[in-house]
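Sequence, please.
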């Protein structure tokens, strides 16, 4: 159990939605970032029935959650995996653990919402779960929240809750006593039995949760989409197991009173990339938290794993890059996304505009390994080519044709089969990016991936004349891998201030 016994409902919902919005945008972007893709739509032949998910993956809290819940996460609250994640959370600078701050997504990812709060009695068990409840039945037609905890000592739990917010007993609900805020504030409602404690945004939600579990009514635990998603999950090393639906971004925008078509586009992208029902886990390495997502089939099919070679020629101060293999195979997926949004030629138009070359001239650059990077000193693009001579010739032609587009000279370099072009403000000259090597080691990056991307949020300070690099930045490393029933993305995040 975390912070929900202290914060008002409005503050808590706003804080959770702020953090989840950032995570949702990041996860959707992750799905759209690269790799190779099939040239035809996914087969309509139904896949074999998945192995049913284990009780550990489902979690006890799912039996209380509505079947149409848009977001769910649970933790056993103990064991080595949880202890490792807790060590990451407690080492975070203060600003990262303050719900509602611009950096709180890392605290949420590290289990802030499911961790015990100071002074919490041992009457609560270690397991915990949080659900985002969707639909018209929820308050204001936007998501409410539902939390679950086991109870070891009912008297101690009730005493602590009353001390925190002063509650008064309401009408019982089955084996549960419902406790309401005595001040009639916006602090939600509790339902407590000898074995379970529930907190929900509203009295209506907490009573429905009790009825759902006691009468064996349809719940998230029985939902087909949820069970299918959780069957794809590999929970090795997981401290948290979770689930989200493709309409999460729209639900968040409604709850945040935001009307922006970008959120609906985000939902559509989620559908295209197999994130309709997404199972995920959160674990930890020695340096930060790792979110692993397990989408189903979609327009993106990861390429055969490869060992990225281009990061070693990027500038040492690179703040963002994307690296993939066989970009030509990625183009059908990009075109499918463009088609969905009314511009099926977006990939071809972008390549032609940025290169200044006819599409037929770009063939040598689209096979092999490709990367693009950006930092304060330089912007670069590189390839480990199947045909290095042809790739070098093409890059030199592109550099020459772009001279009228930029005031900065773009130089072409070559080391063996690796050719790269970058602005000459402070070219790397092939220097090893030791900072990335250290980050990769902290993240537990596998030796072979299907796609690799990196972001230091200090990059955004360069887009403003007044913004300055901040010690509260985060660094993120994303990679994808193929899986038998879909694909996997891994997102590692650490605090730059650590």
């Amino acid at each position: 159990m975390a912070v929900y016994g202290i914060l008002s409902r409005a503050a808590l919902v706003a804080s959770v939605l702020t953090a989840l919005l950032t995570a949702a945008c990041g996860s959707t972007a992750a799905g759209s970032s690269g790799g190779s893709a099939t040239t035809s739509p996914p087969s309509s032949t139904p896949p074999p029935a998945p192995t049913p998910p284990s009780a550990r993956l489902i979690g006890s809290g799912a039996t209380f959650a509505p079947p149409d819940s848009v977001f769910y996460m649970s933790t056993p609250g103990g064991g080595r995996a949880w202890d490792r994640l807790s060590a990451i959370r407690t080492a975070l600078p203060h600003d990262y653990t303050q719900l509602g701050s611009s950096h709180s997504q890392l605290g949420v990812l590290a289990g802030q919402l499911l961790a015990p709060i100071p002074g919490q009695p041992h009457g609560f068990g270690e397991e915990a779960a949080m659900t985002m409840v969707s639909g018209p039945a929820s308050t204001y037609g936007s998501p409410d929240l539902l939390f679950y905890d086991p109870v070891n000592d009912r008297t101690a739990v009730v005493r602590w809750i009353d001390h925190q917010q002063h509650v008064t007993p309401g009408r019982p609900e089955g084996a549960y006593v419902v406790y309401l805020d005595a001040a009639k504030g916006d602090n939600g409602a509790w339902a407590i039995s000898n074995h379970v404690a529930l907190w929900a945004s509203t009295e209506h939600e907490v009573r429905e949760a009790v009825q759902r579990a006691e009468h064996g009514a349809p719940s998230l635990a029985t939902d087909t989409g949820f069970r299918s998603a959780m069957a794809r999950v590999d929970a090795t090393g997981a401290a948290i197991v979770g689930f989200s639906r493709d309409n999460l971004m729209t639900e968040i925008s409604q709850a945040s009173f935001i009307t922006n078509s970008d959120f609906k586009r985000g939902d559509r992208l989620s559908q295209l990339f197999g994130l309709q029902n997404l199972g995920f886990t959160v674990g930890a390495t020695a340096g930060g938290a790792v979110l692993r997502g397990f989408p189903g089939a979609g327009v993106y099919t990861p390429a055969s794993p490869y060992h990225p070679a281009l990061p070693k020629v990027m500038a040492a101060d690179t703040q963002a890059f994307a690296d993939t293999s066989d970009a030509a195979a990625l183009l059908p997926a990009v075109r499918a996304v463009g088609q969905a949004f009314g511009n099926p030629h977006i990939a071809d138009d972008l390549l032609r505009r940025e290169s200044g070359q006819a599409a037929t001239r770009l063939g040598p650059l689209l096979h092999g390994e490709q990367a693009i990077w950006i930092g304060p000193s330089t912007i670069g693009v590189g390839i480990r080519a199947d045909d290095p001579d042809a790739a070098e010739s093409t890059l030199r032609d592109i550099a020459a044709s772009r001279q009228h587009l930029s005031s900065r000279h773009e130089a072409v370099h070559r080391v063996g089969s690796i050719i790269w072009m970058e602005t000459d403000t402070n070219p790397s000259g092939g220097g090893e990016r030791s900072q990335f090597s250290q980050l990769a080691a902290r993240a537990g990056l596998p030796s072979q991936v299907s796609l690799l991307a990196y972001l230091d949020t200090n990059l955004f300070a360069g887009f403003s004349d007044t913004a300055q690099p901040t010690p509260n930045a985060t660094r993120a490393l994303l990679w994808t891998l193929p899986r038998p029933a879909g694909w996997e993305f891994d997102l590692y995040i650490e605090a730059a201030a650590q």
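The chain has 13 helices and 18 strands.
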